Amino acid sequence: MGRKLEGLQRMLVIINRLKGPQQYVPREELENYIAHRMEERDGSPVDLRTLQRDFNEIEELFGIRICFDKQRKGYFINEEDSLKQEQYDRLLLNFDLLNAIDRTSNLHTYVLAEHHRPMDYECLPLLIKAIRFSHPVAFNYIYIREGGKIREKKVLPHYLKEDQQRWYLLAYDNGTLKTFSANCIRNLRIINEETFRRNMDIDVEELFKDSYGIWNQTDIPVEEIELSYDALDGSFLRSVPLHHSQEILTDNEEEFRICLRLRITNDFVMALLARSRSLTVIKPMRLREWVKKVYEEALKRNA
């Protein structure tokens, strides 16, 4: 196993142990746990010096600070630096899977991984660093909807948000909070000689509560939406809701009917079309006409 891969696996083992129900983990207990888990992965023994180096790298890479409580004689994760549980679990799941696949084992014979590496991942480390240390960033931004027109931007980065396997930057552009697709950022550079005071009062959950995906166009009203499907499509929508506001109105052998409350954007309509085999838009009528128009134009093109 390569040193870099082994070190990453060891760091994830440490995080996984310290995020458990036991608040303080004694040094010997943590060392034994790491040694046992790394032995399963054909790793090397770990000493105190290696452990401390791992703690430093964990803080640098993940922003997770591991401390030692002398009174309780145990290690713990500083709650101020811990990630939200959903993000935490996703990070550990993704890295554990990737690490397992990278090992010289036969796991590839029963796990089929997607090998495509999206371009937008390349700028994430720099963006994370800029956000963490409150530095502005400058970049060239490609406006896809304007025929690929490029504009130079200088913004104050605040958050990274993932949606539909793509990453987006939330940043203040001339005093207005905007969303930038990481996939459209080019020539990114951190302006290290400048700093700004990060706005920690942004309610990110509230910001996207009424939107589908990343686009929260406040000039579009929030509307009540009612959709009808057959039982087969309903089985999928029951397990993977279209939106967090989804409520089930009817669920039987003939019909699966739901209501939602959100802004009707192009992204939302595209999501509806992705599972539209049995879709009937009950309301609002303008959404029904929108879907109808898309299909009429598609029929003309493919007649």
Automatic annotation (TrEMBL):
Residues covered by the WYL domain: 124-189
Family matches, as InterPro entries: CBASS_pafABC_assoc_protein, WYL_dom
Gene Ontology MF annotations: DNA binding
Keywords: DNA-binding
Record bears the keyword DNA-binding: yes
Protein name, per record: Predicted DNA-binding transcriptional regulator YafY, contains an HTH and WYL domains
